[in-house]
């Protein structure tokens, strides 16, 4: 539990977690400006080329819904070192790849040796038609942390560069309204919440860059039905979870309130698990028939390896449990593109359950 300290936003070298994480991750000499993400943590993109193949199939379907435009865009938001775009380009049929403009949106410098077809940019392009994909991007959008003090009052958590925390001012204004709606905290000292307004704004702005098509965010996620009692903020370095210290030495991540992000878009949005999404895109961990081992031993081993990779990507206790947020762009093809992935009836039932759980949380415990 954090100690109660001065109420100002900055005091004694401490700031709110949003400013501290922004500086540590993206400021001069920040973690993401110096480090390749794959050196510190493994995402679905790195787990198997099947993931890029699934994104390629989704892009092909979006392309068909949009009438196969002369210029098709694939925007990779939080592109790392361009691994996803490289994999998608390798998986696409040549006629589609020939019309594609792939955009890697990343604050770090362009890596050497990247496919010259990939455009490297600091901001997503505006007015394009196609697919915007954000794999594990929202969890790195910095936000404030709130903690309930001994009197039962939610306060901002302040942190120094070496990771020491104390409590600051009571949560107020728009953050208090967000907390009341999306993450109600009972008056239990030590309970925490991660205030997701910056992520809502970031996702709504990203979706708005598309003239038509589909935007997908895939990430660690939770919803009103199961908010974590103590939050999820953590660090990663060299493949291991470490204490979240905002000094630029590690990744800083917190799971995403995808239900709140879904409500922030101007058009319709839906949610599903990565397992469900990848199943609908043809990725399943089905073992090949044993007869193939005799007829084509090498083919059997390849199919067995692919089945193992698919099982990892769709494991409900791991990557398959990630949330996918599917948001339609404002153009006429957006909602039709979303239905390529989403069973709208199932999603409406899930959102009704979320509303029920929000009411339960608001009643306190």
Sheet with the most strands: spatial strand order: 5-4-3-6-11-18-17
What name is given to the CATH topology of the domain at 17-143 and 191-283 and 321-339?
Answer: Rossmann fold
Categorize the overall geometry: globular
Residue runs with pLDDT of under 50 for 5 or more positions: 4-11, 344-365
Cα(first) to Cα(last) distance is 20 Å
Measured on Cα atoms, how large is the radius of gyration?
21 Å
Quantity of strands, as a count: 18
Classify the helix fraction into a percent range: 25-40%
Describe this structure as you would to a colleague.
With 365 residues, this protein is of the alpha/beta class. It is built from 14 helices and 18 strands. Helix 4 packs across helix 5 and helix 8 packs across helix 9.
Key terms:
365 residues, alpha/beta, seven-stranded mixed sheet, 36% helix, protein-arginine omega-N symmetric methyltransferase activity
Can you give me a brief rundown of this structure?
The protein has 14 helices and 18 strands. The chain is an alpha/beta fold.
Topology:
Elements: E1 3-4, E2 15-16, H1 17-26, H2 31-34, H3 44-47, H4 49-65, E3 72-77, H5 83-91, H6 94-99, E4 100-105, E5 119-121, E6 128-135, E7 144-148, E8 154-159, E9 165-170, H7 173-182, E10 192-195, H8 197-208, E11 210-219, E12 221-222, E13 234-237, E14 240-242, E15 251-253, E16 256-257, H9 258-264, E17 269-273, H10 274-280, H11 291-295, H12 297-314, E18 323-328, H13 334-338, H14 344-362
Parallel strand pairs: 1-9, 3-4, 3-6, 4-5, 6-11, 12-16
Antiparallel strand pairs: 2-8, 7-8, 7-10, 8-9, 11-18, 13-14, 13-15, 17-18
């Amino acid at each position: 539990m954090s100690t109660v300290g001065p109420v100002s936003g900055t005091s004694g070298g401490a700031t709110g977690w949003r400013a501290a994480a922004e500086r540590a991750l993206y400021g001069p000499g920040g973690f993401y400006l110096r480090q390749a993400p794959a050196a510190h943590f493994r995402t679905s993109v790195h787990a198997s080329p099947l993931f890029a193949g699934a994104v390629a199939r989704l892009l092909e379907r979006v392309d068909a819904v949009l009438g196969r435009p002369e210029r098709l865009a694939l925007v990779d938001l939080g592109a790392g070192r361009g691994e996803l775009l490289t994999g998608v380009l390798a998986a696409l049929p040549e006629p589609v790849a020939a019309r594609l403009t792939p955009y890697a949106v990343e604050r770090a410098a362009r890596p050497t040796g990247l496919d010259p077809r990939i455009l490297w940019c600091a901001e997503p392009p505006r007015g394009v038609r196609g697919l915007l994909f954000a794999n594990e991007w929202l969890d790195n959008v910095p936000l404030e942390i709130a903690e309930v003090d001994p009197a039962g009052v939610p306060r901002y958590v302040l942190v120094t560069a070496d990771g020491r925390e104390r409590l600051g001012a009571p949560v107020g204004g728009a953050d208090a309204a967000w907390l009341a709606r999306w993450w109600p905290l009972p008056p239990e000292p030590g309970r925490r919440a991660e205030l997701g307004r910056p992520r809502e704004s970031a996702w709504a702005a990203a979706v708005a860059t598309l003239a038509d098509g589909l935007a997908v965010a895939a990430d660690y996620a939770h919803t009103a039905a199961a908010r974590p009692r103590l939050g999820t903020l953590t660090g990663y370095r060299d493949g291991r979870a470490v204490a979240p210290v905002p000094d630029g030495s590690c990744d800083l991540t917190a799971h995403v309130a995808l239900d709140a992000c879904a409500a922030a878009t101007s058009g319709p949005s839906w949610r599903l698990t990565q397992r469900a999404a990848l199943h609908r895109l043809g990725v399943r961990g089905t073992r090949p028939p044993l007869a193939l081992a005799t007829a084509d031993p090498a083919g059997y081993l390849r199919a067995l390896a692919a089945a193992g990779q698919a099982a990892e990507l769709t494991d409900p206790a791991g990557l398959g449990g990630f949330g996918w947020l599917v948001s339609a762009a404002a153009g006429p093809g957006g909602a039709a593109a979303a239905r390529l992935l989403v069973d709208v009836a199932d999603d409406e039932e899930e959102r009704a359950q979320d509303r029920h759980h929000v009411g339960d949380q608001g009643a306190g415990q």
